[in-house]
Predict the structure of Cytochrome P450.
Amino acid sequence: MWPLLRKWPGPRSRIVRDFHATVRRIGRQVLVRHKPVKMLDVGEGQADWSFIGLLIKALAEDPAGERRLSHKEVMTQINTWLFSGFETTAASLTWLLIELAKHREMQDRLRIELRQLPDDAEYSEIARLPYLHSVVYETLRLHPPIGTTTRIASQDDIIPLSAPISTKSGDLVNTLKIAKGTHVRVPIRPVNTAKEFWGPGAGTFDPERWWNISAEEDGEADVVGGGGSHSGSSGRIMHLAFGDGSRACIGAGVALALMKVVVFVLVRRYAFALPHGAQAQIQAVGEPVARPQVKTRTDSDPAGTAVMMGIRKLMG
Ligand code: HEM
């Protein structure tokens, strides 16, 4: 509401300043260390069509001495990529491994499913694995890395409510009037874990719920697509981790593919356990991307959001 306050030299603005400096530094390293990725099947010879390759190309001057993107624009793209793409997916994968470490029977069941495919399986096959899909979706439901998002009403509107609520003056209302320009916070985490939507086990990690939903609604399209509809506006029961509507996460398909491939590679070969035991209390800390942190830390634990994990290589 008061943009000038953002410049107020408090602890928060220091964090934001340090954050930008760190992202700029990492962004510069990413550009300098990038090794061209050769992609043969894009019909353009050996061109480097990777995201960073394209940004580097956009930085180069054309014969007329013009650049398609300024250095600042390229750094901003890298900032978006690191924050929206990397941090979110990394946090989700960490949560997924923690849940598997807590639920060894689910880990074993998943491993059996993953081992039905050969080491060099195509992604289309990995995407179709139903239990893997359920585990990924359940992780995103229970541990959405982004806890809230905001919308600004573009016109006056009246929102119908599923159950009446009491106003400050004690009146019961069935609708909410939203004036044009109102900032509306969308509480992703509470919606994803509300008992009204998910039943009494809303707070429990239960991949089976996705299994049942897709079986009941014949929603195999999700599993087959490996991304499919992750948005509630389709009318189906969905988590809100990627937001919803026309400004929902643009990278959801990439995120799902990344998570599935990483889990495919890791869980086939390694067993994961929590040294603190399956009962270890792990909480989500930090904003805007929530990371896991052991609640009952001891002096020997690393500070911050590192969660120690025991990893054992499996034979065969
Ligand atoms: C598990 C991983 C991810 C989660 C949970 C996630 C979540 C979200 C959420 C909640 C939003 C805001 C949507 C809204 O306000 O309705 C968003 C937007 C966005 N995400 Fe993701 N994201 C993930 C991965 C990615 C990846 C891998 C990329 C890029 C490759 C990406 C790029 C973006 C971009 C560019 C936007 C802004 C879209 C717009 O405003 O139109 N995200 N994401």
Remarks:
- The pocket of protoporphyrin IX containing FE is lined by residues 80, 84-85, 88-89, 92, 144-146, 149, 241-244, 247-251, 254-255 (CB under 6 Å).
- The chain has a mean pLDDT of 84.
- The CA atoms of residues 276 and 298 lie 10 Å apart.
- The radius of gyration is 22 Å.
